Amino acid sequence: xxxxxxxxxxxxxxxxxxxxxxxxxxxxxxxxxxxxxxxxxxxxxxxxxxxxxxxxxxxxxxxxxxxxxxxxxxxxxxxxxxxxxxxxxxxxxxxxxxxxxxxxxxxxxxxxxxxxxxxxxxxxxxxxxxxxxxxxxxxxxxxxxxxxxxxxxxxxxxxxxxxxxxxxxxxxxxxxxxxxxxxxxxxxxxxxxxxxxxxxxxxxxxxxxxxxxxxxxxxxxxxxxxxxxxxxxxxxxxxxxxxxxxxxxxxxxxxxxxxxxxxxxxxxxxxxxxxxxxxxxxxxxxxxxxx
Amino acid sequence: xxxxxxxxxxxxxxxxxxxxxxxxxxxxxxxxxxxxxxxxxxxxxxxxxxxxxxxxxxxxxxxxxxxxxxxxxxxxxxxxxxxxxxxxxxxxxxxxxxxxxxxxxxxxxxxxxxxxxxxxxxxxxxxxxxxxxxxxxxxxxxxxxxxxxxxxxxxxxxxxxxxxxxxxxxxxxxxxxxxxxxxxxxxxxxxxxxxxxxxxxxxxxxxxxxxxxxxxxxxxxxxxxxxxxxxxxxxxxxxxxxxxxxxxxxxxxxxxxxxxxxxxxxxxxxxxxxxxxxxxxxxxxxxxxxxxxxxxxxxxxxxxxxxxxxxxxxxxxxxxxxxxxxxxxxxxxxx
Lengths: 291, 335
Fold this sequence. Notes:
A: mainly alpha; 4 strands; B: 5-stranded antiparallel beta sheet; 4-stranded antiparallel beta sheet; 13 helices; globular
């Protein structure tokens, strides 16, 4: 199976023109396969996660008492960003791929680039917001995450390994997902903005000669690969969002908070302190107030 | 230098004798199959080796696709009826004279003897970049070579361009829209009847196709209701060579006029967009107005609203305007 569609340019050059559209199905099937395998793994083989310490170990009674019933997790602006990004992303995916699988959408290119502009602006806002007003590093995997992931794998394989610690604000899978979305998102945004030079929009004067055929071709390929990557990523994201054991995280993205019980049950207050009063047993990972 | 090929690449030829057989073949071979009507469009593709189908389904032996018959209060024209038959058919000439007039404007007598009305409305774009086999949008690529600063686009679109600027070349299409014709399409799921104007699709919807036909679908007939029988018709085609050429712009109108006032009208133009353009705004503006120079002038101005000429086809804007004016005013090319 060809991953890339090639063509001969008027100058006799073999140039890539876009991805093979069958990759849409590959991505969709891969996403669904992950869903099935993960669901089977969790329900049949996976053991209840063990943590190195109990939910409140290392915390003083006074510190625990200071933790509110509703632990703030996502600010209103972060939640609005997430909603706008999700809507624009779904619009982008539907307008991009439904016509490729035979569903006719009139003027899909216009809807597509409008959604692309919305996504680009929201991502710019997100970068600015995350850098200046949120705890920027809280979403990046750190050494503790990597060590604990190794320990989890060893324990899953029946080997001896220390019990992993609880998560900071974001579980490792959240962080890895964010990383994948960031890579794919920046790819589609950067290539998409250049591709807007090829179509009529109110923003740019059309210039199909901005790049050579080869550069344009690879740009379309990268846009397409990142796009089909999003098909799989969105399927896994929606699946994870509705899983019962993760649903409290989903709810926190809607309402902005999680319960004290979930906070203490799944997160390490030393790595993600709330209401100040970080316990003294380990250095706090987060430097700023929670978003 | 032009590349000259000796023979058409080999394909498996099927000649079904019924619509059901043709559909079964299409269903069996899917997108590998090419449906051949008169062959005037197809053989160009094959000879140039731009399209290389593995299977060709020749409809020439399907008798039920041929001929003109009474259908309800109107007519039904089989999709494989030749343009010459349409031109000379007495019933069509009597009731819907615009259609023979438009059909006769297509190509040459030899081509009209072989070419079918179904093929004429379903033919592909004639943009030479696309026909030359370049990987343009319409061919599945990512550029329109005609819509570049150096592109030759004298014959291309001034309306509704969306990445691709090719135009629909059919002469009978605007006449059928003016007559409010219905296209009968057989699909694997059954029969579907669509308005003529909805049979054609532009690049904004699907850049690789000119009509709604998907692999496995077959245009079997065109039904013309009696609504416009005997109306005032107008068809005019402007082309570079009067003997044989595609339209630069053509316009077709059917109207009823009472006491010098336009009562009802349907108006369509082709050669200006990737699909025949049903000029509904013009229709709405002229109904109830006297059929005179002033109304014609207004109609012409409305028709060109939104026109975006390319480098070399600016002349199409006044051309469309004037043809619409003449259609409203009436004139020498009245069908």
